[in-house]
Amino acid sequence: MNQRQSTATLYVAFAVLAGAGIISVLVGFYAGVVLLAVAVILGVVERGRLATSTRSPNHDLRRHLLITSATLAVVCVVSTTAFLIELGGDEHWATGKLLVYNAVFFATALGAIAFLIAGLRVRRTHDRPSLPV
Question: How many Å apart are CA 27 and CA 20, to the nearest integer?
Answer without folding.
Answer: 11
